[in-house]
Amino acid sequence: MSRTLGLCVTSDKHLDNVIGLASAAANKDVDLRIFFTGRSVLLTQEERFKNLVGLGKLYVCDVSFRANGLEGREVPGVGFKEFVTQARNAEMIEECDRYLVM
């Protein structure tokens, strides 16, 4: 049976905690989805962000990304289709067994 964990990251302060939780989920074979919104999109520009690549599916709120002046910048592990709206966040809540907001 597949287990799914969704993370909604809203703060730009706790990247180490996000990486730690994502690593723990991957080690336990948990299907992970992470949604970055608000100021957390600034984390996508930190060098350590690349440590999340491959641990789960990464999504970035396109509106927050633009609002924080990051439009046109690259994000490791996040392609064009992973820049999404809050509607994707709502879908994740429905899809996941557990959903945490950080």
Which short descriptors sum up this protein?
single chain; 102 residues; alpha/beta; five-stranded parallel beta sheet; 3 helices; 5 strands
Tell me about this structure.
The protein is an alpha/beta fold and 102 residues long. It has a single domain (4-101), classed as DsrEFH-like (Hypothetical Protein Ychn, Chain: A), CATH 3.40.1260.10. It is built from three helices and five strands, in the order βαββαβαβ. Strands 4-3-2-1-5 form a five-stranded parallel β-sheet, with helices on both faces. The protein is globular and about 35 Å long.
| Terminus-to-terminus distance | 26 Å
Number of strands: 5
Overall pLDDT level: 96
Tell me the helix content: 25-40%
Major sheet: size, sense and barrel closure? 5 strands, parallel
Q: Which radius of gyration do the C-alpha atoms yield?
A: 13 Å
| CATH fold type | Hypothetical Protein Ychn, Chain: A
**What is the CATH top level name?**
Alpha Beta
- Counting helices, strands and paired strands, the structural category is alpha/beta
> What is the CATH homology-level superfamily?
DsrEFH-like
**Number of folding domains?**
1
Q: What is the general shape?
A: globular
CATH architecture call: 3-Layer(aba) Sandwich
